[in-house]
Each structure stands twice: as C-alpha cells, then as structure tokens.
Design brief:
- By secondary structure, the chain is an alpha+beta fold.
- About 40% of the residues lie in helices and about 15% in strands.
- It is built from 11 helices and 10 strands.
- The strands form 3 sheets. A 5-stranded antiparallel beta sheet has the order 1-2-3-5-4, covered by helices on one side.
Length: about 325
Amino acid sequence: METILKMAAQYYGIAASELSPLPGGHFSHVYGFHRDGQDYVLRITPPNEEIGFVEMQAILTWMHALTAHDAPVAGPILSKQGQLIERVVERGKPYLLVAFPKAQGIRGEELAFEQWTDALYMRLGQTLGKLHTVAQTYTPPNPTLRRPMWDKVGNCYNETSVPDTVPPVILEKRQAVVDYVQTLPKDKESYGLIHADFHGGNFFVDTTTNTITVFDFDDCVYGWYSMDIAMSVFDALVLYTGSDKSAFATHFLGHYLRGYLSEKSLDRFWAAQIPYFLKLLETNIYLQVAPYHSPEDTDSWVGSFMQDRERRIVEDIAYVDVDFAALLEKVQQQMR
C-alpha cells in the first residue's frame, strides 16, 4: 500500500504521512486527511468485479451533480488533476481512489432510538425529497455513465443469490410482487435515479444542527421514488423496539412525509404502492439473511426480523398495517 498511498497523497495535494487509517472499510481501504481547514476521507478500492472504473465514475458523477444542486450529500471532491476518480496501478492491478468531505455526526443506525426526534424524521424526508427532485432533471453527461435499472443488478429490491433452502413458495410470492410492480408507469414524476439503499448505515446524523448527510451511492439505480420511501419505513421499523409497529410507522411517516413534500410532490397513487415495495423488500431481505440466521438468535435485528417471517410472506400479510394513501392525504391537508 505504500506506493499507492504516496500516489494518493500527490493526487490530493498532501504528504503521505498525513493519511491516517480509519475504521469502517469493509472492502475498500479508508484513510482520513486534513487540508485547507477541512477533514476528508480517502477511499481506496482494490480491484474487484462488482464496481469497475466506469461504474464508479457513473456513481460519482451522479453524486457530484447532487452536490452541485446543494443536496445534503457527501459528494466527491476533485483531485489536483480535476478528476472525480483517480486510478493507480500496483503490480498490474488497478486501485481506484476517491476523496470525500468528512460528514459531521454519526451514522443513523448508531443514533439511539430515543435521540430520534420528530424534527429529524422530517429532515430525513426532506433530504430524500431533495435527492428525488434533482433526479427528475438529471441526465448523465454521456450514455456510458447511465446507471442500470433496479431489476438488472443485485440490490435490496432484487436479490440475485437464492439459497437452496428457501421454500419455492417464497420465490413464487416474490415473483408475484415483481410481476405487479413491473406494470407500474415510469413517468418522470415517479421514476428516476434512486439511492436504493437509503437506510441508517448510509447517512450521518448531526443532532446539534439537525442535519443529515447521505453517502454510499454504490447501489443507485433507476427505480420508483417510492422505493426509497419504503426503505425508510422498513429501516425505521428495524430500529423501533416497541410492539405497536403500525402506530409508530404512522407517527414516523406523518413527520417524514411533511419533510418530503416540502421538496417534492407525491401522488396518492404512489403512496398506495408503498406496501408492494415493502413486500418486495421483505422477501429480498429474507433471502439475504435466511442462510445465516440461527433460530436461537432472537435479540439481533435479524433475529427479530426472521421471527414468523416465512409465514407472513406466504400468507401475504402486510409488512406493516398502515393506509399510506390516507396518511399522505392527511399530511397534505395539514400543510395547506
């Protein structure tokens, strides 16, 4: 890594000794540095088959466009050569270098449930609404930088690895939901570039300023904007430790939608589709965690999620009992 770090330091105008290892890198190597009064994060991605140079460039170009529109995103900074991404070849293998401003606060998933306020729920919705508003007018600078459709690559809505132990009826139920959502219209008001992984592990929350900063757009794809809203509901219910999930989801969404609507409109029809996107999430998350779940595990979020999950999927039980369309109408009336 020494040669790579030296090159990285040159690209971003610092000395290699100023790069400090940071925790949190699962596949990539992550370092921090300070320059011109600002803290930054350097990500060094080793060669891999999932995200190559062009794919990463497409992601970073989208993030750069978001920051240009003042969206609350930890977007990439340009290198000294004016590039969003730099490539270093070490022993014949390409490593990809990207630097971002360091976001303030902590990951949303690390924020204690008691610290989430109605104002933060609203800010979360407003943040997503801003991303979707920019997406409505975004066009990649060239066709090679266009991200794929949601059902063409693996993501939380389209799990491509299916365990042998999964009952066939689960796959049949998932396919039925896929068949339905594929009939939905794809107009610019409802369909565009979405985050597709909009949960607490991918944004920072600063409780002192009531701000949220989004990062990790590696799964961004073209999909329905309501998919991102469904992900927020799904994630909020993962964090919720109480018993009345419907009441909490209604409370959460009441404030969340108020924030979302302050940035972007949402039609009643699309609020009514959220249960289908939740069911798609539910079945795909089930496929992701089922092979690793131990029946003895009842304490973790996976253990909690898996409790009675198979029956609920097979019997078409709603992920949460909420009339999303009626709730949206209520919020819209309150905002008039």
